[in-house]
TrEMBL record:
The keyword Lipoprotein does not apply. Pfam families: TetR_C_16, TetR_N. Keywords: DNA-binding. It comes from Nonomuraea diastatica. Signal peptide: none annotated. The keyword DNA-binding applies. Residues 12-72 form the HTH tetR-type domain. It comes from the Bacteria. Gene3D superfamilies: Homeodomain-like (1.10.10.60), Tetracycline Repressor, domain 2 (1.10.357.10). This is TetR/AcrR family transcriptional regulator. PROSITE patterns: HTH_TETR_2 (PS50977). Residues 35-54 bind DNA. One of its GO terms (molecular function) is DNA-binding transcription factor activity.
């Protein structure tokens, strides 16, 4: 209950410890295993305070992924010429997955999106707004949104096979080798010629 000894009062500074506890829980327990009460217990606050700041478990997850995902670092890698855009993106993407401070959070988000429709919707909206839209804005070829979607689907597929399912030999390949193999495909999606069938299929997926 609110006011118990050891519980934090409801001030704005309390939000960050709650969010930190939520991120840790989503990473270690996944979306289904994370609860408002569990997060409140770890943050030493009343569950009502978690609801006050975030409204619901979905609201808490939304805030957690925005806080924990290195979106800004991916957007930063988009800066520069189009000719080497895929190389920068893929290299940065794999570096983040290999990083012990970012990799577990990325894995937790993918796990959650695969297991829970609500989590998938939140991740889809984040990707569309904060990653795909900036990427499309840097492309000079036709159908930039569709090109960005193809690139994202390829990169997420690599992450799923390498880091989530750990399919060999992909899981054990050196990251630079993976990057060198995937980069030409991503670059074609971003700046190369795309067939009408590819455009039609991707446009349908966007609806």
């Amino acid at each position: 209950m609110a006011g118990e000894r050891g519980r934090r009062p409801g001030n704005p500074q309390t939000r960050e410890p709650i969010l930190a506890a939520a991120i840790a829980s989503f990473v270690s327990r996944g979306y289904p295993g994370t609860t408002i009460r569990g997060v409140a217990r770890e943050a030493a606050v009343d569950p009502a305070l978690v609801m006050h700041f975030f409204g619901s478990k979905d609201g808490l997850f939304d805030a957690a992924i925005k806080k924990s995902l290195p979106v800004a670092l991916l957007v930063e890698a988009m800066e520069g010429d189009e000719e080497h855009l895929a190389e920068r993106l893929v290299t940065r993407y794999l570096e983040l997955w290999e990083d012990p401070s970012h990799g577990p959070a990325l894995a937790a988000v993918l796990h959650a999106a695969a297991a829970t429709p609500a989590a998938a919707d939140l991740l889809k909206e984040l990707m569309r707004k904060d990653l795909l839209t900036p990427l499309a804005g840097r492309l000079s070829r036709d159908h930039p949104e569709v090109r960005g979607l193809f690139a994202a689907s390829q990169m997420i597929g690599v992450a799923m096979m390498r880091y989530i399912l750990k399919v060999e030999p992909l899981a054990s390949m050196p990251a630079p080798l993976v990057a060198a193999t995937v980069t030409p495909v991503i670059q074609r999606y971003l700046t190369g010629e795309l067939s009408l069938e590819e455009i039609t299929g991707a446009a349908t997926a966007l609806l």
